[in-house]
Inverse folding.
């Protein structure tokens, strides 16, 4: 478009404009229309109309720009002709409303766009990471390709993709973290580099490490942020346009179902030292990505669907973004789109993070189940909150087999991250010091078909309670699909839970979730308003009765002997009636021990025990009416011994001490 014709005078189209407009003129009456292939939008889809004939003009970015420029020119000419400020303001309002409508969950970017694009006087440089989540790493996956996205003065200026084994790998190797060097121990492993620099599970920290490695080979570069995309997102993006035919993939139609297979075949060629593919390794994903971008930008309704897809994948952490620009970083952190670990002093959290180092693409076949048990005890901490102990069980199952593509022996590093200040009772084999969490680490090695179960126990710090409410954050690892997680709550005996998201059953509550996104839970203990419930009672010794309740008893009330009475029922031996007196009582947790005198050895004799004013530690008292239970002299050693002696008429007590005449 010739911009010299823009001005205050009435616009006159040039011959070039007339030529371009001729392609969009209506056909002459009676002229045959070219055949139109079927599409989801039918005859209303201009994309299919533009490709309905071999002679149709190719729809490119330049063509779109040319049509858009002509539209803006004609609109501006119409506004100048009418010279109405109200009309201009109305059009501007309509224009901005349209942008606002299309942005959806990215409406906050309406205000952040100038900062993101460097408008009006700056430039912006971002790194784009393509992470393969089937080879899982702490922030989403192995970095197979990276790109450079640039803007200048508010305008997009380019996206270039590069291979991680190319120029960026041309620097002196550094010592890798001990875990990584242990798992990747191999004569061909040369040391730490850009492609392995996403070791830290907090993407904000990983960003700084990646930029540091990037500047080793690009010392003059200034990076304003990093955006990460994983393989799952590419599959979902492709699903909107499948099947997709690209020459670079031997004309085999690409779909979301076969994308992994096709790209893996390309990588397999590299692994077999195909020099041709090795020299063009960066092109494995580039044709796919550039084609998807073009198809997305062509029509507005596709942009809307794409933005919805992006928002969903940001929530599910298949997309991450973190910036060196404070305003942008705050906006993405507020939405938990920046891959940050949870704040350690904001309550309880559990973050399971698994990194594949030497396990091929084994995460495609790895199944992970997690169970977290929280037990609130009746003991109190210094803030008068119940002390909570946790037990985490992680079960890893290798569902692959040796004949499956890229399935083999799995080697990885498991981190179980919990709040800082937790008291570790049963930890892992690997220790790691972090300022934001405690880490329970483990080296994982699995063969196809094997299962590993790991268990950790710890006592949580006081700050997991906030004003009597317990908060729990279940943190999803970037790149994972939806690991199965179960949370089990155990309340002190006699208490229950107020937990809307849980299935509450008396003192126990259950919560099950397929962890596709982060989950925040809150619950609180329900005060004990129930009286202690009697579970069992028995005569544990002659003149000793033990009664068991469902919860600990109040010691002071339990010690009052006036609360108890024991009566001989004369069922076992009607000829002997014991006069039983209670001489003492004490509470030992859930057990009440009553001590008596006057009880004689009478096997199978029954006694009635009367109990009143039995209270738990919360002061809940049994019904004012007396509670009656029955105990039996049965199985007591001293009773059995005396019974054997007295039941034999030929043996008398102390017979050896009697005179001979009395014995006769």
């Amino acid at each position: 478009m010739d911009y010299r014709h823009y001005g205050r005078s009435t616009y006159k189209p040039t011959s070039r404009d007339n030529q371009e407009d001729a392609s969009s003129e209506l056909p002459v009456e009676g002229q045959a229309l070219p055949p139109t292939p079927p599409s989801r939008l039918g005859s209303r889809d201009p994309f299919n109309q533009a490709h309905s004939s071999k002679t149709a003009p190719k729809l490119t970015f330049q063509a779109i720009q040319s049509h858009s420029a002509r539209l803006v020119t004609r609109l501006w000419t119409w506004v100048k002709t009418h010279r109405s400020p109200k009309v201009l303001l109305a059009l501007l309002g309509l224009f901005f409303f349209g942008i606002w409508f299309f942005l959806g969950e990215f409406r906050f970017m309406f205000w952040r766009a100038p900062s993101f694009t460097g408008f009006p006087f700056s430039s912006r440089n971002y790194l784009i990471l393509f992470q393969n989540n089937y080879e899982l790493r702490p922030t989403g996956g192995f970095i197979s390709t990276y790109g450079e996205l640039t803007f200048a003065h508010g305008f997009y200026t380019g996206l270039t993709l590069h291979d991680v084994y190319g120029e960026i790998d041309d620097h002196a190797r550094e010592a890798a973290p001990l875990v990584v060097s242990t798992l990747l121990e191999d004569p061909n492993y040369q040391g730490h580099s850009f492609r392995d620099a996403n070791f830290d599970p907090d993407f904000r920290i990983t960003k700084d490490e990646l930029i540091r490695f990037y500047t080793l080979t690009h010392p003059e570069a200034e990076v304003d942020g990093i955006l990460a995309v994983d393989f799952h997102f590419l599959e979902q993006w492709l699903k909107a346009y499948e099947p997709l035919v690209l020459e670079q993939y031997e004309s085999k139609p690409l779909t979301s179902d076969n994308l992994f297979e096709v790209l893996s075949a390309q990588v397999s060629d590299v692994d077999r030292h195909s020099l041709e593919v090795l020299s063009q390794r960066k092109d494995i994903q580039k044709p796919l990505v550039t084609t998807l971008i073009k198809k997305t930008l062509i029509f507005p309704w596709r942009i809307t669907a794409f933005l919805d897809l992006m928002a969903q994948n940001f929530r599910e952490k298949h997309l991450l973004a973190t910036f060196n620009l404070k305003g942008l970083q705050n906006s993405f952190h507020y939405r938990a789109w920046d891959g940050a670990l949870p704040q350690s002093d904001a309550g309880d959290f559990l973050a399971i993070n698994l990194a594949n180092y030497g396990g091929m693409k084994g995460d495609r076949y790895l199944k992970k189940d997690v169970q977290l048990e929280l037990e609130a005890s009746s003991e109190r901490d210094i803030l008068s909150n119940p002390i909570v102990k946790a037990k985490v069980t992680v079960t890893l199952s290798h569902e692959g087999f040796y004949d499956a593509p890229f399935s083999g022996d799995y080697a990885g590093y498991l981190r179980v991250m919990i709040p800082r200040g937790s008291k570790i009772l049963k930890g892992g084999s690997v220790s790691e010091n972090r300022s934001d969490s405690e880490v329970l680490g483990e080296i994982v090695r699995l063969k196809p078909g094997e299962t590993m179960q790991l268990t950790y126990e710890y006592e949580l710090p006081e700050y997991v309670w906030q004003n009597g409410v317990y908060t729990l954050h279940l943190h999803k690892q970037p790149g994972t699909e939806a690991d199965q997680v179960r949370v089990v709550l155990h309340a002190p005996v006699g208490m229950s839970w107020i937990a809307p998201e849980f299935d509450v059953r008396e003192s126990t509550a259950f919560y099950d979730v397929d962890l596709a996104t982060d989950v925040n839970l809150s619950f609180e203990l329900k005060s004990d308003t129930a009286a202690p419930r009697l579970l069992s009672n028995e005569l544990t010794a002659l003149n000793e009765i033990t009664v068991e309740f469902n919860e600990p008893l109040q010691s002071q009330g339990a010690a009052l002997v006036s609360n108890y009475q024991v009566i001989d029922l004369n069922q076992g031996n009607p000829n002997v009636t014991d006069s039983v007196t209670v001489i003492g009582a004490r509470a030992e947790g859930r057990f009440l021990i009553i001590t008596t005198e006057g009880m004689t050895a009478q096997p199978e004799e029954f006694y009635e025990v009367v109990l009143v004013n039995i209270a738990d530690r919360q002061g809940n008292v049994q019904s004012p009416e007396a509670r009656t239970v029955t105990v039996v002299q049965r199985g007591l050693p001293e009773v059995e011994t005396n019974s054997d002696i007295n039941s034999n008429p030929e043996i008398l007590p102390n017979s050896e001490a009697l005179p001979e005449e009395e014995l006769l």
Summary: The chain has four domains: 3-24+33-83, 116-334, 349-526, 534-646. The CA atoms of residues 546 and 568 lie 17 Å apart. Confidence is low (pLDDT under 50) at residues 1-59, 269-275, 641-664. The longest strand covers residues 366-380.
